Amino acid sequence: MNNTICDPAIAHFTEKELKMLRKIEKELNVIIEKKDQDSITLKGLTGFVYTAESRIRDIICKVERIENRKRVAILTSSTVEWQYRRGRKFKAFDPFTNCDLEEAFNLQTTSVQIKINSEVYNADIVYKVATRGRKQIELKRVQLKASLPLNWEDMKGQSVVLIELKADSQEFTEVEKEFRKTSLSSNIIKVSLLHLYLTQTSSFESF
After folding, report:
1. Among the listed ranges 2-16, 105-119, 174-188, which one has the minimum average pLDDT value?
2. Are the C-beta atoms of 117 and 126 separated by less than 8 Å?
3. Residue 129: CB atoms within 10 Å
4. What are the residues whose beta carbons fall under 8 Å from the beta carbon of 204, sequence distance 6 or more?
5. Do residues 114 and 130 lie in contact, with contact meaning Cβ atoms separated by under 8 Å?
6. Cβ-based neighbours of 3, under 8 Å, separated by 6 or more
7. Cβ atoms of residues 95 and 102 within 8 Å
8. Is 17 left (phi over 0), alpha (psi -120 to 50) or beta?
9. 32, 60, 103, 143: which sits with the fewest CB atoms below 10 Å from its CB?
10. pTM score, two decimals?
11. Please, are residues 53 and 28 in contact by the beta-carbon 8 Å criterion?
């Protein structure tokens, strides 16, 4: 039996995911070929192919979550920066920790666990201090100035909004252009953008 899995997340497979594919291939005695950037072909006995497909789709879901997390983290870093005191100066957190802190801030969570220099701290969002035993490190939240496009719509207090773009709009054209770069041959019926509310100062973005 031959079966092909097509998904954009496959293009983001790292060596870790490729090793998992080789492990599945060996355990189930199937042939797994990654011919194109976003497709995988499976060959083997029907039952084993179905089992392999199920495992691969689980891997795809995990990769999709990681990629979405990356996009949100980068987006958050463009609007707000969390920092910790290091000597006399403050140093910015990595994008993922920055995102965790900002999410806790927006959700009005009292505290969240973070890592500073590979050590786990309990960050108090209210008092802006990270604690590990008797050790405390001062935290700071810096609101970055972001210039928002004039054509963005008001989210009216909603945290997530899905907006369908008009076919004759500049944004539609730009998105279509990016899709074409991936050798997409299908016809594009519609394009929707997901708008996320990230901070309490109406800073939002779309991707």
Report:
1. 174-188
2. no
3. 17
4. 148, 152, 155, 195, 196, 197, 198
5. yes
6. 41, 42, 49, 50, 53
7. no
8. alpha
9. 143
10. 0.60
11. no
pLDDT digit string, tens, across residues 20-76: 999 999 999 999 998 788 899 999 999 999 999 999 999 999 999 999 899 899 889
Enter the tokens of residue 151: 């054509």
**For residue 51, what are its two tokens?**
């089992």
CB 195 within 8 A of CB 165: no
Per DSSP, the three-state class of 2 is strand
Strands 39-43 and 80-86: unpaired
Contact between 163 and 156 (Cβ < 8 Å): no
- Report the length, in residues, of the chain: 207
* DSSP labels, 124-186: ETTTTEEEETTEEEEEEEEEPP----TTPPP-TT-SEEEEEPPTTSHHHHHHHHHHHTTT--S
Q: Is 123 left (phi over 0), alpha (psi -120 to 50) or beta?
A: beta
